Structures
1.
Amino acid sequence: MEVGKGCIAILGPGAIGGMIATRLMAKGLDVAMVGPSKTLRKIKEKGIQLKSETWGDSVFFPKVYQYLGFKPSILLITCKANQLNQAKDRVKKIHMENVWLLPLLNGYEHFSSLRDTFPESKIITGVIGKVEVKITNGVIYHSTLGAEISVHSRFPEAKYFLENLFEKTGINCQFAHSEEEVIYKKLTRLSVLAGTTAATGLSIGKILQNSFWSEILQKSLIEACAVSASKGYPQKPAEIMRFFKQLPFDLSSSLARDVEAGHLGEADHILGSVIRAAVKENVKCPTIEYLLSKVLERVDHCQKELH
């Protein structure tokens, strides 16, 4: 199915899903948001409001459905990984035969789950990165130059479809050489960045200034790179450290914001998935295990503070 022929469905009407929806609708594409009634009611009343330093301010009113009851041209999954099991029940399998399915979740274990649930779909391995978005009072704030989606697919025609889908949206679509590259290029960085910011409540800039936590960051990065290499995608810790040092001083993470609100969020899907991959490959990662333990402690602490 060509872009423009059929509706584009987005499962997960949060910050990432809403941002993507506005960029697709800005080029005239038909978009439907699928999610819980409370969120959809707000979208129906006020639209998806985006404030972007790159794209300006916009408001769009997509179609809204609690359940996907039709065959879309593509289904983008943009909910958080810890919400997937509940979210995918909103999609009827009968409508997903031979349909593109692009999950943009953190971690990697969801891919096998989606293949089991939607065996007739054309599933693309994908992640989204180089983007900072958050929702405040129902408004999506986008503070980076754009966004980048990295994908890998065994279907040759996926490249043509996705290039056309995201053309002129400001969302750059990169095609990786392997599924491991897609997964571990992001997960290696994310596990360290999200782990340290969530464990401390500090921004990346403050972590790099703190001698103890800077050392924890570097040790966890070396371990995460070792896991990535064991999966067939070697990375250099020094290059990623340079990347971290170039990030905005006040940058935090979605996981850190969840923990601050007393929620575990995607901690298991980000840090836990790296630990489980390490166990399978006989790679030691005590620092990442320490980070996860500190995140759990901080969730408990924040819950007590809130109550």
2.
Amino acid sequence: MKKSIKKIIAFLIIIDIISYLLLTLIFGYLHIYKNQLNISKVPVLSTINNPNTEIIKTENKGLFYDKFYYLFSEKTTIANDTESIEKFLSEKDISRVLLKDDNSELIGIYQSNSVFLALYKYEYQYQSLKSGNPHPLLYYYYDFYIRDINNIYCKYSGERTEFYNLVAQQQYSKVIPIAAINGDYWGNTNHCMVSERNGGVLRVPSDNQVILSDIGVLYYDGTFETYLPEDFNYNSIIEKNPYQIWDFGPALLDSVGNPYSYYSNQSYDHNVVSQRHPRSVIGYYEPGHYSFMIVDGRTDYSDGLTIYEVADIISKKGCKRAYNLDGGDSTYAWFDNVIIRQNLKRLSQGNARDIYDIVCVGEFEQ
């Protein structure tokens, strides 16, 4: 009897030891696996075609509300003609944030409890930086302030589609777009090596992959940084909690907000840098304050701009960082349910450029 009891006790002890070892192994595996995810952020490509993916609304008053509260209003106002704009300006004291550039025309205002946006049109003879000769120029400038980081977001597709399809798609059912421009054409696997949208990873560089392009990163805290290829470190960026990562470029301004004097020929050839084209640019002033610059080009009324020229203009507007997105025939701009810039020649021929992604300013349904 005593021997049987001893055997049972010994058996139970062995079972306890085995159970402890198994639990230790499982816990260790999960801990390592979790850390690996936090460091390398393995891509979740299934999110590309998941219409239920949602941007999560922050449950507080907003990261940037205390700084820009005076620009927001519980009443939503859209002013898109001379009369309504003049009426808005006569009733609201926002003169300190309006741009005072030469040649500017204020053509749109949007104000709500989450977003303040002013849209400007510039049309004039621009003096070439290189030769000093004038050439026709038309561009649009969105200057906007947001209550929280989720008021700027991206819509994207795994396949190329029409610009307006991306604007209208119900990828984020609770977010209402106010303004939108094209993104970085992320689906181009020959160029785009790293991509993150709304905190979800679309493409991760392999360990031995060489990044040749400048990278633009918008972080969850509202800061925006650009990285030259030699400064790019994916794990370091992930540790700082990125919200959007764009891979196109070039970065237009240096660490103090001045235009670069030279853009690498390794990544951006003479045609991209030194020829005039339509351009799409995202600019950064401070957390919560950003801009879009959309340059028309390849037309009788606007030649477009070189990279040097667009960097010169946006730096004079006071941006601290600026990043060039896809341009040329991919350059699109939208505001208040109207596409205000696209390639009209291609549109008339029935072959408007399809794209993969857009960058939006929007707000949550109440």
3.
Amino acid sequence: MSVSSNEAYTTWLAADMKEMEGGSGFQTQSLTVSVDGKNFYPFIAQGETVTGQNLTARVPLEINTDSETVTRVAELYLDGNVVLGRYATADQAPAKFITAGDMEVSLSFKQADGSTDYEYADESHTIYLQDNPKIAASYQLKGDGFSFTGADQLVWSSSDETVAQIAADGSITPTGKAGEVYFTLTAKNGGAEGREVTVNTETLKLGVGLTRFCPSPTTSSGPPTARRSPSIGPATCATKTAARKPLLPSPLPAAC
């Protein structure tokens, strides 16, 4: 909307405008624009004066859930009454929503220095926290052109935050508590009704309070082998021998 240098028009429009918070510009009070007759948005002029400027109204559009392009019609309102129908139009293409099948999630486990993959010690695939592993979740979208892919639209969450928490970038922080936990990626799809979808990672097993490796005693068949100890501390790696009862002296013969 262009504001001319017409003095009378400018005077009327200036009287209808109010300075925005922070002094970044002015916005209209009674003159608004709407595409649905329910939600009204003001015109805005940036700068210190109204004269000679273009006024702009930003009108958020509802998500187009149809399969075809729809035409949105903007109308001018004065004090809530239409003063100019079909002031402007905009063609809106259908939204392309993410489905659960479009999301692929995975977990990565690295050694403390982050340079190599974490090595499991046994078939339980437990991550032991005293190893200080670096754990992260990531995702890939199969396809392109999706309408809602921002950080606020693809959100991670933890199934048990008392065991591990996950940040927006997928980095995972264990709390120090042993347990099992998985992580969920939610595609909000702009908040469109019935369009939110989720997908879960594999379950992560976290162990606490176990020594990682202990050498088994040497046997006649070969050198020591690595085994996981069920207790804490180096004492668990020591070879234990059966305790011997102390030898007691034989009872003295009874005195005659």
4.
Amino acid sequence: MILSSKRIYFLNYISSFFYVIKMLAKLEKLVVTEPTWLTEEVQGVEIAVCNFFEGLDKASHDIDHVYRVVKLAMLIGNSEKNLSCEEAQIICLTALLHDVCDHKFSNSCVRKNRLESMLEDTTEQIKTRVIDAVEKVSWTYETSNPNTHPLALELICVRDSDRLDAMGSIGIARCFCYSGEIESSLDCAREHFDEKLLKIKDHLITNYAKEIGNRRHKIMIDFCAEYDEETSYMSYMS
């Protein structure tokens, strides 16, 4: 089987992540095995997600975004607790699939069928938990259902990781990229910071995400101040 550069990136990340863990464990004379959660079923879903995003021309919501969310979600999960094999699988699958049901790509019926099809080789318990989390990841769902508690671990990890990828330098880049994709103006993109992006920091849940979020929030604050300064000439023209 020929691997795409994106898949090699994903598998290399997983391999390097556990290589570091094993090296640290070796220093402490501990025994660490290869990740048992990275099963053929998980890799099969990852291939399906890759194929799905290859057919889209959305640089703001592409497979690179998905992989960044996977990476952060796994790091957040491991910062919260010693993950079981099943918990790690569910977090990884939820992160891989979190944008497959995005309303920007198709109607709700098509999205649900697509999600179930991609998870057909997983157990019913894993499928149920992943689908439930994926349907609740979005900012729209969160802000429309603010009192939904308690939140499942996989939902917390993927929500936080997805929100972090909308912040900082990468968040700025994605915001203006999306604005171009929908043929919106620069000023509309700037307004999106006030409408959503600058509010994300207060919605982060885990300590790990909050630490990263504070730094990325400051980057956006500084950017907005500079943008407003550089576009202030408009006040003299009106």
